[in-house]
């Protein structure tokens, strides 16, 4: 493909994203006030509970089978590496730039999570449709590319709503009001700390022991020996209960800290359902295909899923209104995020994918290698804007980061795509 053609292929999806963001910005200004604070909050819940699960589940069910899962086992590992390495580089960046603590999670999340679904859904089919594409037959390339992108989007969604979600939550310094809002997406925030729990438990236990001894008369010697034995036995039981209670409290505190319930988000459940439908042949025949008896379920889910990309992009654009008025994001922080996403991560990705190919983890499929490589060079995931909106922390700053990263992506993504195609050809 000529450089000009490739440039247009990569530029068009990014321009679409920017144009829809502008629409969201216009809807948020006071003159229209269609996407105000309350509207964005409820809109986020619709995206979280309905649109994202529908998109992930329907895409996986349509394109992923048992054979594809076996051959694509390295993709979850590759995506996890992009998240871990990106968040590590983001942590270094916030220390160097002395970013405010409440924005640490946003910066680390922006460096970690790439747009593994929306852009790839447009870029990969567009590349396959080119007459001189390096990936062979158009129809076969489009079908295989759809499966690769669907799996990438599903895995990325799981990582975002577990790994990145908890990073932003940990640094968000949630107030009571934020916790109340966040509880609408099944977050268990009891507000009881470990010290308070242990203090109340110990005080109640000692009070119970004192009352039981004060109410008793002095026993005779024989009875005293038996009673003393029983007390020792009861003390042992209390000690065992105390140890078990302490263990349980520590487990509960750890679970609350990392929010294990977010491992079973709607998108995660949709991923499991979509994989089951796609992999189990009898269920697949019932729901997938033009002659499937229950095809209306799959088509309805796909129809809902189509609203995900524009809805999330509108929210990011609406958040941009506050960011343009006042933002805590400095110039050097923006430059640092751009360097991480468009310089450091792609270079690391080339080394990882080439090493995996050399040891036989990836295989010789050039399209598969291209998707693995491009996962390292994408702008931040739109879902980060949804998470910041849910917790009301860094919404405007997130929009400014999105504006710059997607603007630069028009050039950076094109250049890296050209290099990646040359490497896998």
TrEMBL record:
Transmembrane segments: 6-30, 73-94, 106-127, 147-168, 263-283, 303-322, 329-353, 373-391, 403-424
Pfam families linked: Mem_trans
Gene Ontology annotations of biological process type: auxin-activated signaling pathway; endoplasmic reticulum to cytosol auxin transport
Membrane topology designation: Multi-pass membrane protein
Domain of life of the organism encoding this protein: Eukaryota
Cellular component GO terms held in the UniProt record: endoplasmic reticulum membrane
InterPro entries: Mem_transp_PIN-like, PILS1/3/4/5/7
Places the protein is found: Endoplasmic reticulum membrane
Record keywords: Auxin signaling pathway, Endoplasmic reticulum, Membrane, Transmembrane, Transmembrane helix, Transport
Similarity comment: Belongs to the auxin efflux carrier (TC 2.A.69.2) family.
General function of this protein: Involved in cellular auxin homeostasis by regulating auxin metabolism. Regulates intracellular auxin accumulation at the endoplasmic reticulum and thus auxin availability for nuclear auxin signaling.
Protein name as annotated: Auxin efflux carrier component
Organism: Mikania micrantha
């Amino acid at each position: 493909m000529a450089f000009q053609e490739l440039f247009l292929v990569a530029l068009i999806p990014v321009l679409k994203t920017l144009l829809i963001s502008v629409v969201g910005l216009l809807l948020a200004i006071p003159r229209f006030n269609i996407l105000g604070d309350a509207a964005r909050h409820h809109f986020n819940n619709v995206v979280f509970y309905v649109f994202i699960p529908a998109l992930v589940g329907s895409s996986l069910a349509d394109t992923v089978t048992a054979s594809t899962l076996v051959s694509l086992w390295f993709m979850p590992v590759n995506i996890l590496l992009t998240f871990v390495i990106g968040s590590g580089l983001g942590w270094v960046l916030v220390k160097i730039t002395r970013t405010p603590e409440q924005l640490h999670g946003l910066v680390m999340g922006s460096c970690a999570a790439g747009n593994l679904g929306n852009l790839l859904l447009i870029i990969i089919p567009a590349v396959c449709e080119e007459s001189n594409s390096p990936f062979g037959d158009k129809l076969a390339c489009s079908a295989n590319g759809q499966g690769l992108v669907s799996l990438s989007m599903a895995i990325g969604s799981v990582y975002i709503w577990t790994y990145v979600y908890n990073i932003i939550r940990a640094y968000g310094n949630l107030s009571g009001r934020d916790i109340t809002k966040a509880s609408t997406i099944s977050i268990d925030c009891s507000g009881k700390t470990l010290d308070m729990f242990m203090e109340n438990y110990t005080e109640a236990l000692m009070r119970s022991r004192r009352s039981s001894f004060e109410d008793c008369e002095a026993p005779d010697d024989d009875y005293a020996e038996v009673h003393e034995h029983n007390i020792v036995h009861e003390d042992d039981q209390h000690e065992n209960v105390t140890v078990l209670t302490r263990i349980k409290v520590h487990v509960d505190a750890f679970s609350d800290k990392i929010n294990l319930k977010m491992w079973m988000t709607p998108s995660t459940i949709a991923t499991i359902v979509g994989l089951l439908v796609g992999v189990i042949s009898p269920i697949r025949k019932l729901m997938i295909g033009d002659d499937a008896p229950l095809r209306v379920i799959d088509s309805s889910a796909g129809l809902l899923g189509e609203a995900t990309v524009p809805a999330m992009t509108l929210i990011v654009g609406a958040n941009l209104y506050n960011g343009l008025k006042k933002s805590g994001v400095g110039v050097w922080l923006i430059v640092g995020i751009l360097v991480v996403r468009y310089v450091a991560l792609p270079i690391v990705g080339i080394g990882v994918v080439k090493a995996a190919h050399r040891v036989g983890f990836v295989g010789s499929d050039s399209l598969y290698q291209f998707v693995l490589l491009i996962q390292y060079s994408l702008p931040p995931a739109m879902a980060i804007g949804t998470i910041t909106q849910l917790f009301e922390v860094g919404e405007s700053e997130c929009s400014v980061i999105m504006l710059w990263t997607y603007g630069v992506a028009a050039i950076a993504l094109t250049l890296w795509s050209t290099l990646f195609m040359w490497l896998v050809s």
